[in-house]
Structures are given as C-alpha cells and as structure tokens.
Amino acid sequence: MLTCALAVCGKDLKLILTRGAGLLQALLLGLLLVFLFSLSLNAGDRLSPQAAAAMFWLASAFCQVLIFNMLYAVEESAQARLCLVLLPAPVQAVWLGKAMAGFLLLAAAQCVFVPALFVFLGQSLGQGWHWALCGMLLGDVGMAASGSLLGALSVGRSGRESLLSIVLFPLLVPMLLAGVRLASMGMDPDPLLEDAPRWLGLAASFDGLFLAAGLLLFPFVYSGDD
C-alpha cells in the first residue's frame, strides 16, 4: 500500500509542478489575503500575533481547497479515475498518496506565507517558535487527511470547489483554532507556553480522527462511477 501511495504522490507532484499554474494560483490567493489585510493597518502599526496567526491559517485553508481540487481534477480531466480504482493495491493508497502530495504542497505554500507575515503584518519570531512549528505540522497533517477524503467526495460533480469548501471548513474549525493559538505563540514576545501541550493534544486528536475517517470511508467515497 505504501509503495502505491508513494507512486501516486510522485505522479501528482510531477503533474502539478509541471503545470505550475494551479499551484501559483493557490500561492497568490494566500498572499493576496495577507496583503489586503495589511492595508487596514496604519503606518508603523503591528498586528496582534493572534490576528496574524488567524490570517496565516485562513490563507492556508483556502490554499488547501485549491490544492486538493487540483489533485483530484488530474484524473477527472483525463477520465482516468477508474485506473486508480483498479490499481493492485487497497484503494486507500490513492487517499494516502494524494494526502501526502497535498501535505507537501501545502507546506511549501506555508513557507511563502510565513515570511509574508513578517513583511506585511509586522511580525517577528517569538520564544514559542518550536510550539508553532509543531502546531503547523500537526495542522497540515489533519488538513491533508481531511482534504484528501473530501476532495474525493466532490470529484466529478459540478460546483466542486464550493462543495469542498462548504463541507471542509466547519470540520476544520477546532484544528484551526489550535493552530491559531500555537502559531500566535511563535510570534508573541511573551507567550503563555503552559497552554501549548493542551492545544497540541487537541490538534493531534483531530489528526487521528481525520486519518481514521480517511482509511475507513475513502473506499465508499471514491469510486469509478461518474
């Protein structure tokens, strides 16, 4: 299963990075959100770390929707979805491979969003940066697992982008809340670090929930039927 998942991940990354336009669109959307929010600040003002963290995860969430729409549209546009279903491996390998590809693409996008917070929103690195990094990794795992499952749910249907956004965002609220709290610790000069393990535990719990849901439900969600 893992070998097949790695093959699916490599195929998707090669196709997305070769085309480039879709990934660039996701990056520009996230950067545009950060830049437009910075226009509300007066010269010399500094946004609060919690508000900046919220902007970071909001940009990441919109980027996630575009990424998984792209990943599942690859087979849809070529009408090759049935080929993945017929692979000599559990169909969960498709979910895992696309989740891995989405995780890597989302992490790459966030490597662009973080400097944008420092440049446009006047943030600086705080004492809790290691908690923020752990929170970002756990948040990305959960977003990749849920995005891969719900991306399959919306495949082949009109209004795909709207369906994925409507279903996905409410499920991500607790994880995004934990991510915002942890990310704010990485930019706050005087963070309350004693709360960090509790927020990490919340993020890890939802990671486990989304991973289990993907493994159990993906075969019922993703099929070769149009």
TrEMBL record:
Pfam families: CcmB. Keywords: Membrane, Transmembrane, Transmembrane helix. One of its GO terms (cellular component) is membrane. The chain crosses the membrane at residues 20-39, 51-72, 103-122, 128-151, 163-187, 199-222. It is a multi-pass membrane protein. Signal peptide: none annotated. InterPro entries: Cyt_c_biogenesis_CcmB. One of its GO terms (molecular function) is heme transmembrane transporter activity. Its main location: membrane. One of its GO terms (biological process) is cytochrome complex assembly. It is found in: Membrane. It comes from the Bacteria. Belongs to the CcmB/CycW/HelB family. This is Heme exporter protein CcmB.
